[in-house]
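May I ask for whichever protein you like with its backbone structure tokens?
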Amino acid sequence: MSPAPDGVRHVLFLCTGNSARSIMAEAILDREGLGRFKGHSAGSRPKGEVHPIALHLLERLNHPVAHLRSKSWDAFAGPDAPQMDFVFTLCDSAAEEPCPVWPGQPVTANWSIPDPAAVEGSEAERHAAFAEAYRMLRNRISIFVNLPFRELDQLALQQRLDRIGRSA
């Protein structure tokens, strides 16, 4: 798979509310991708705001956050939207959370991550859930951006992406 003419591969992270997991993934990819990847995020039923604990964590880890916002995946369906090379759903299918489906030709995979925004408990427990989701996302994204894309055919790439989705 070749990158766009500008050399950047566009990646869309989808989850239901687009307030935590997909937002964190967008920020992580923008840093880890070193200009070779551009992260985007959206939701099938966006909350309309970024979860405050996600924002706090990203700010504490020195991620730029001013551009992050909760939005519908419809924002990426129009003719002016960037063409996506990859679409990753982050829904926790084990919790029977509905996962959005993305039409078109991008390479897709489900990287199921438990929703930290759904965690109830003490403030410390809630912050720990966000930190764990961030850790899982960062590990997967680090593996992803270091794949030997030029050496992988479509099937091998799909197998690698599915394997990444099963990693912690």
Notes: The chain has a mean pLDDT of 89. Residues 123-145 form the longest helix (23 residues). The longest strand covers residues 9-15.
